[in-house]
């Protein structure tokens, strides 16, 4: 990169605009100002969500006497209402259960599938890989009606188990492709050495390939967790009773009541529902970025 | 020490149990490894997909097995103004939102590709709208679009004095349509920006150096290097984006539920309203199936349309 910085000064006589590009004011106008606007707009809804959750109702509905961008007397009333007067803790527990269950299931299934496709080379392997990839292009909006009848047929309607089994349909294709990419980056010679030493295929997978693919497994895992935490349409269609709902569905269907919206409680619920994935995200940012870009590049 | 490490694998080799030998038999192992993934996909993806197409040709309702009615559902849809409205809004929503997402996302990616302090922190912050559950951020937008207490109206009326009345974001058709598109763009920018940023970082700096030596302006460098080099990744990201924008459900369901007066129904929300809420599974499935031709067309268009230009670029290079 140092070369690219050095070049403009060297050719400054022939291309004066490259020189101007580096000048402070232009940099401010062309980079920092638009970036600032982007960050402001991308973050504002979260700020608004957070500030609404801690505002007393009197301030929420009165912009004349209180500056809406700030809280004069913050309150925990909305969060208290949410945690102690609604089934919110239960919804959180269900969502967590569903997310962890479907993530585990998809990770096992897609690790094995990716290993078979990438390492146990067999005829037709690439076609199986392509088939799994195409499954990713089938959107849930097309599937939810027939899936609802399938779920009823299996007697899983209104049970979190239905979601645990259905979510892998969009998690497995993604994870498999991500892991195929990771397995590709592990030198095949390592496995050959182990084969020569008399290890079985399963020993190779457990002792050599999997430990080396841990970053890929973490990426796939956190991604699956986030995607299943955020899923909406299946959870809306397959779960009926209030107690078994996941957080995104429950907030929309159980907390929105009547004509007067409890904006404080709604925003507090949204904030608390976003927090687990946001915390997860902040711990594993690099894995998210690498899995997002890795999956696109594959 | 060396003797023991040598002898134990040798022993294992001599007397492997039948189970170990079975799992070392390649065809068996391949089947075992693929079974969970392919089984799950077959039962919960391929079968429902076929079942959905079959349901579209029946008059099934919740609690009643339907009979085959041929194209009746589709004939009904063709005369249904609500379906035509949903088709129109789905296409409009996808076109405008995709354009907005890619224009702004590409811009943001170019900005993030510069050198400045706290770059990784900024990149992390930018991805946040994409990480948080869509319905929950949609609720925040619903509150931002509130007719009485909208913060945008407050800014425009009380702070900037540009308007005298509050904006009625979701009360009438066109404002509601554009409000939803704005929320969709907000949610889509991070994904586009971060994927394109990854593509930008793979472009070799030597190309820019060569162009600068030839006296190319920054616009020319963008137009003749960045843009053509980004074509393949643009094609993939755009295909994904179009598919998932066209079949979007959450944003519309959370903010307007298709209202006011059904003016913001997407095909997915209409399918839900008829199929699950209304109980007409056959008709809902027909609406869902009617999305497939649009999706296939959009995918082929974005993929081959962009891929062909890349090929032309290769031709024109010499």
- Uncertain ranges of chain A: 1-16
CATH class of the largest domain in chain A: Mainly Alpha
Give the termini distance of chain A in whole angstroms.
26 Å
What is the residue-mean pLDDT of chain B, rounded to a whole number? Answer: 85
- Summing up helix and strand content along with how strands pair, one would put the structural category of chain B as mainly alpha
The top-level CATH class of the largest domain in chain B is Mainly Alpha
**Hey, roughly how much beta strand do the residues of chain B contain?**
under 5%
List the chains of the largest interface with their residue counts: A-B, 100 and 109 residues
Number of helices of chain B: 16
Based on the coordinates given, report the CATH architecture of the largest domain in chain B: Orthogonal Bundle
CATH topology of the largest domain in chain A: MetI-like fold
What is the count of β-strands of chain B?
Answer: 0
By helix and strand content of chain A, what is the structural category? mainly alpha
Quick one: biggest sheet of chain A? none
Q: CA-to-CA gap between the ends of chain B? A: 66 Å
Overall outline of chain A:
globular
Protein name (chain B): ABC transporter permease
InterPro entries (chain B): MetI-like, MetI-like_sf
Transmembrane segments (chain B): 28-57, 86-112, 124-145, 185-203, 224-246, 285-306
Subcellular location (chain B): Cell membrane
């Amino acid at each position: 990169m140092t070369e690219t910085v050095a070049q403009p000064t060297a050719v400054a006589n022939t291309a004066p605009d490259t020189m101007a590009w580096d000048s402070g004011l232009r940099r401010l106008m062309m980079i920092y100002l638009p970036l600032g606007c982007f960050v402001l707009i991308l973050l504002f809804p979260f700020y608004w969500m957070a500030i609404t959750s801690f505002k007393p109702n009197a301030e929420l509905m009165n912009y004349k006497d209180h500056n809406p961008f700030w809280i004069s007397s913050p309150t925990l009333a909305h969060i208290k209402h949410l945690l102690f007067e609604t089934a919110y803790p239960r919804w959180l527990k269900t969502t967590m259960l569903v997310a962890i269950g479907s993530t585990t299931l998809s990770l096992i299934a897609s690790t094995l599938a990716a290993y078979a496709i990438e390492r146990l080379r067999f005829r037709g392997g690439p076609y199986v890989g392509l088939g799994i990839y195409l499954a990713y292009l089938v959107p849930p909006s097309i599937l939810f009606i027939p899936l609802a009848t399938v779920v009823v047929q299996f007697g899983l309607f209104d049970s979190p188990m239905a979601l645990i089994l259905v979510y892998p349909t969009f998690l497995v294709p993604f994870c498999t492709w991500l892991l195929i990419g990771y397995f590709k980056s592990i030198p095949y010679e390592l496995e050959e050495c182990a084969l020569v030493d008399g290890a079985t295929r399963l020993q190779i997978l457990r002792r050599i390939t999997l430990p080396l693919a841990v970053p890929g497994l973490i990426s796939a895992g956190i991604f699956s967790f986030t995607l299943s935490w955020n899923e909406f349409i299946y959870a809306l269609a397959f779960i009926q009773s209030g107690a078994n709902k996941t957080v995104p569905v429950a907030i929309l269907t159980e907390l929105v009541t009547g004509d007067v919206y409890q904006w404080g409680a709604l925003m507090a619920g949204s904030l608390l529902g976003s927090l687990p994935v946001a915390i997860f995200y902040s711990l594993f940012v690099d894995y998210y970025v690498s899995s997002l870009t890795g999956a696109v590049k594959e | 020490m060396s003797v023991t490490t040598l002898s134990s694998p040798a022993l294992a080799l001599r007397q492997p149990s039948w189970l170990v030998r079975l799992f070392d038999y390649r065809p068996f192992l391949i089947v075992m490894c693929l079974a969970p993934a392919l089984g799950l996909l077959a039962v919960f993806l391929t079968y429902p997909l076929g079942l959905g197409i079959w349901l579209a040709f029946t008059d099934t309702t919740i609690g009643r097995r339907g009979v085959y009615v041929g194209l009746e559902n589709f004939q009904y849809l063709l005369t249904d103004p609500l379906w035509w409205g949903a088709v129109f809004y789905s296409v409009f929503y996808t076109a405008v939102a995709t354009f907005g997402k890619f224009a702004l996302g590409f811009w943001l990616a170019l900005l993030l590709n510069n050198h400045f302090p706290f770059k990784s922190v900024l990149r992390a912050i930018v991805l946040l709208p994409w990480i948080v559950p869509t319905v929950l951020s949609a609720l925040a937008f619903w509150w931002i679009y509130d007719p009485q207490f909208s913060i945008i109206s407050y800014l425009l009326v009380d702070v900037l004095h540009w308007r005298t009345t509050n904006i009625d974001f979701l009360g009438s058709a066109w404002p509601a349509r554009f409000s939803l598109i704005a929320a969709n763009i907000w949610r889509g920018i991070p994904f586009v920006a971060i994927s394109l940023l990854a593509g930008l970082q793979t472009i070799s700096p030597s190309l820019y150096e060569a162009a600068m030596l030839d006296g190319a302006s920054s616009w020319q460098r963008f137009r003749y290097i960045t843009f053509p080099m980004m074509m393949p990744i643009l094609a993939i990201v755009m295909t994904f984006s179009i598919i998932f924008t066209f079949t979007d459900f959450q944003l519309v369901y959370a903010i307007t539920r298709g209202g006011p007066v059904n003016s913001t129904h997407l095909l997915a929300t209409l399918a839900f309203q008829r199929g699950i809420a209304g109980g007409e599974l056959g008709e809902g499935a027909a609406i869902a199936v009617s999305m497939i031709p649009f999706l296939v067309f959009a995918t082929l268009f974005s993929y081959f349309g962009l891929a062909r230009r890349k090929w032309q670029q290769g031709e024109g290079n010499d």
